[in-house]
What we know:
Layout: H1 3-6, H2 10-28, E1 31-36, E2 41-44, H3 46-51, H4 65-68, H5 74-80, E3 84-89, E4 96-104, E5 110-119, H6 126-148, H7 163-176, E6 182-185, H8 192-201, E7 210-214, H9 220-228, E8 229-230, E9 243-244, H10 246-249, E10 254-258, H11 265-277, E11 279-280, E12 289-290, E13 294-299, H12 303-308, H13 314-320, E14 323-326, H14 337-347, E15 353-354, H15 356-362, H16 370-384, E16 389-390, H17 392-399, H18 422-440, H19 445-452, H20 456-466
Parallel strand pairs: 6-13, 6-14, 7-10, 10-13, 15-16
Antiparallel strand pairs: 1-2, 1-5, 3-4, 4-5, 8-9, 11-12
Helix pairs in contact: 7-8, 14-16, 15-17, 16-17, 18-19, 19-20
Amino acid sequence: MDNADRLKDYQHVRLLAIRSLFEIIEQSSEGTIVVDRQARIVWMNERYARRFGLASADEAIGQPCERIIPGSLLREVVHSGQPILLDMLDTPNDPLVVMRLPIHDDHGEVIGAIGFALFDELQTLSPLITRYLGMQAELASTRSLLRARQAKYSFANFIGTSAATLEIKRRARRGAASDSPILLLGETGTGKELLAHAIHHASPRANKPFVSVNTAAIPETLLEAEFFGTAPGAFTGADRKGRPGKLQIAQGGTLFLDEIGDMPLALQSKLLRVLQEKEFEPVGSNEIQHSDVRLIAATSIDLDAAVREGRFRADLYYRLNVLPLRVPPLRERLADLPALCEAILDELPGQHELSAEALALLGRHAWPGNIRELRNVLERAALLADEPVLGEAALREAIGTLQPVPQTTPMTLPAAPFIGTFHEARAAFERQLIDTTLADCGGKVPEAAVRLGLGRSTLYKKMAMLGIAEKTAS
C-alpha cells in the first residue's frame, strides 16, 4: 500500500495525527505527564521533573500526581472523563498554562490522563490577556456607571397614605407606563425629584440610565455643552476626544430636567427639537444624533405666568404639559406627618421619637419648606436633644417662627332644615361641597379632586350628575 492509499485509511491517519500531535506538544511544551486510572504517575519527562525539584523523572513513577505536582487536577480528569483544555497551575517558579486530557482504551474506557504544561511564561498570551483585561475593565466601568445612573427611589419611598398622596402616586404610576413627557409642578421641597426617580423605577426603562440635570445650577454658558455634549476640539479648552452630553448618557433611559423654568430661551428651542424630532447635534458638530430618552421635567415656578411674561416658550410648555402632576405641599397632606416623621427619624443617628404634643405642634405649622424643612427641623431637634423623646419645646425651638396653617373658609350650611328626600339632601350637600372646594382652588378641578380625595374623572362625573357647569372649573 503506497502513501496515497494509506492516507485514505481513516484509522491509520488518525493514529498518525495523534502521534504527531503528541510529539509536537511534548517537544514544545514545558512539561508532560501521564497518569493511570488511580492518578499515579506512569511517565514524566525530565524537564517537568526538574521543575518540581526532582533529580530524575524516575523518582516520580508510581507516586500520586498531587504529591509531585501540588494542585494537579489530573485525578479529576480521570474520574470525570472530561478534558480541561486551558487552566492555570501555580508552581514554585512561575505559573503555567496547562492542558489535561483523558486517555481511553479501544473500548472507550478511561484508563488514565495526560497533562501538558504549554507555557512557562504568560508573555506568549499577553496580547489575548491584555485584550481580555481591557474588556473586563470596560465592562466594570460601564456597570459602575449604570449603577450610579439608576433610580435611587421607588414609589415606596414617597411616604404617606393621605388622599392627596395616594392620588399623586396613582397618577404617577399610570404615567410611568407611557413614554410621554411628564411635568412635575410643586413647591420646593415637596419631593419632585424623588417622584421622578420613582416614575423611572416603575417604567419599562427602569434598567436603563436615569440622568438628572439641574438647569438652575449650571452656568448658562456651559448648559448647552452639558446637555448636548461637545465634538472633539469644539472650542478652546474643550476635550480633544469630545465629551458626551446628558442626552447621550441617558440614551434609552430617562432624562430628568429639574427647575426647567430657569432654562434659557435659546436652549428651550433646541430642547423642543429633541422632543419633536428625536434628534440633536453636539456642540461644534454637524453630525445629527438620534435621541431615545423619556423626559421628566420639574419646576417650582408658575409656568403659565412665565409663558405670559415671555420667559418660557409657549410651544415647549405645551409639549411638556402632556401629563402635568401637581405634587401637593406638606400643608395639604398633614395626615402624612406621623409616617414621614417616623421614616426621617429612622434615618437619623440615635433612637428618637416624638411625643404626642410635639406631633400636634408639627400639624399646626404650614411648612413653607415642605418635607425638606421637616427633615431639617427633626435633624436639628435630634442633635440638640438630651432625651430620646422629642417634646413640644424641642420642636418649637427647632422650628423657630411657627407659621400657622391657613384655614379655609368654613362652608355655610342652610339655616333652615332641608325639606326633601335623603337622596335630594345628599345631592344638595355634595353640590355645595364641590362648589365651595372649586372656589377655594380657583376653579382648578385637579386640585379640587385632590382636596376632596377623589379622582379627577370621578369629580367630573359628579359635576355632570349634579348639574355643575364646567365653566365653574375653567
